Amino acid sequence: MKHKLLAALSAATALCLACGLSACGNGNENGGNGGNGGTTGEDPQHVHTFTVENVCSGCGDAWVFTDGLEYELDTETDTYTVVGIGTASGDIVFPYGHDGKAVTAIGQDAFYDCEALTGFTIPASLTSIEDRAIYDCTELNFIKVSEENTVYRSEENCLIEKETNTLICGCKNSKIPSGVTVIREDAFYGQAELKGLVIPNTVTTIGDEAFRYCAGITALTIPESVTEIGYQVFAACDGIEHIEVAEDNPVYRSEQNCLIEKETNSVLYGCNYSVVPDGVTAVDGAFRELQNLTSMELPASVTEIGFGTFMYCSNLKKVTIHGKLTSISQYAFGACLSLEEIVFDGTMEEWKSIELDPYYYDTQTGDFVITCTNGTLNRSGEVVS
Questions:
Q1: For 63, which of 54, 100, 188, 228 could close a Cys bridge (C-beta 3.0–4.6 Å)?
Q2: pLDDT at res. 178
Q3: Distance between CA atoms of 24 and 40, rounded to whole angstroms?
Q4: Both ends of the chain: CA-CA distance in Å?
């Protein structure tokens, strides 16, 4: 059983020398060599050993941490988990201990949509970071991990799990290091100021929504190593102008600024500058939340419009469909506030024969009409002219 406690941490334990945390007379910054095992300048064999009291047992120096975080006690392990920012703000330094017990984890959703968080430093003792522990923190500037942490490391303002080389979390100032193999789901969610995205040729997997709402990305290049791209990874990346996939990639290809899955011949991601190429058979959520998309033309080869394909494209006014569609999925045109017309290169009878999900549009969708070769239908399929 867990008991939630709001911490009012003692300022006395947060005192340090003017030069910062020192190692028996030699200055060390938190997140550098200031964790368990941090060495001194004079004696490379001497290490700091911080206790749950946040004090080095060898020299008495303090680990400088942040007051006001919110904690929850895990009675099974008799350790604390950080579960919220509490009254803290700005650059957070997590402690080694709280109330005489070790702090070993950051809980799920602990810093969910937390604009108050601008940076964080993780000590050697903190060895468990749960899903979405640091999520949609749009003001995050830096990420540091103590060099002596056995589970995590930091590089180029990225939080990385050592054993799997999984990038767990990034920020607006991150650069993805070579050697990373997995970019975890939600890793850069909401980092609108992230620019100059370069995905190294060591990455094989990009998790769901990893770059969602990263509006500052202007070019997307997928290397040949990437063979798994999750759901809505680049949704609402409204700044992308160019999409390219390495020619030797075995799973994906690019054409006319579209990211296409080879096996299914489906467009998975597009941008405001995409032209759906002839030969593609499906568009599957590809243009979701592109606010600058005003029109789209689908070639005769397209037979399926997948779930949420144009959802939240609030400025989309016209879609032209040349294909003999077989299905339009749920919310394909959901919340397309400005949608006025779907031009269908077929008869009204052919339109009505399409497998239309009852919710292919919703109450937020504009009052559009379907212009067919022999007449016009309203969005409910009734003849208007």
A1: 54
A2: 98
A3: 7
A4: 66
